[in-house]
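Hi U.,

Before I forget, here's the chain from the pilot set. I'm dumping it here mostly so it's searchable later in email.
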Amino acid sequence: MERPNAWLDYTQEQLADLDRVCEGYKRFISDNKTEREVCAASIERARAAGYRDLKELVAQGVALKAGDKVYASNHGKGVLLVHLGTEPLESGLNILGAHIDSPRMDLKQNPLEEKNDLLTLDTHYYGGIKKYQWVTIPLAIHGVVAKKDGSIVNVCVGEDEGDPVFCVTDLLIHLSQEQLTKEASKVIDGEMLDVLCGGRPVVIEGDDAKKDNASGGQISLSGNGGKKTTLAITLKSNVSADTNESEEKASLLSGFASGEATGTAPTATVEGAVDLGADAGFGSSESSDSLPIWPFIGMAVAAAALIVVLLAKRGKGDEE
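Structure:
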């Protein structure tokens, strides 16, 4: 059965109304990309339309009456709007429900990882996403950081013109022959959706022994073989002895939002010891001048194994 094209039936006035609705919808979902942001924006619009906070009214002992408009927030991730009618509940309710759908990649609780001299953020995907659509596209970080005092810090990095841009990397075309033979559901594995966060080494100047008490400056994290790790963040420290590892990482991420860009290195404020070192999963914080011993041990073991094989072959030849 052939279906008529609905566009051909619209008048010019209807097309203008449709454009207005669609443009507003696009702005809304572009500005509000998580359920928290949608909830906050919905409450703001509801208050402008005359809705009042039900929690505040209950605390004040206000009795509701027919015609009142109230709203309630469910942990900042869901919102209920109620317009009281004139008839009792036994007569029924008019209910309109809408789902806040936010397909995305969530950062894990301890997301910072170093791979191949690059800083990445470990993620797990949420919602029904096609994983291959999420590589090599510009990404932004949206979220909140909960502090010990109960306050919430909103984080949004990557939306403004001067913000850093995040992405998930993919193989170059001439390196992906095997990858291209896979099914669409398997071409990008979920565990490979790591977000590239930094690729520029940060070098500390001065005496390494004084870096724990430095009032400002930069941190150099040492990676494999004594090489400098790639952390494109400048840290300013407010040293506090009771700050633990997870708080340091949360402060590190929140610094992207409040930090002032220095080249490609935003300024982050970390409340706690500034030497992340091995505790943050970056390996040792020793000087880059030191040489690792593991490669030499590996070479010695390989040489010994080769000698054993040669001796065994020689002994076998003598017996024959």
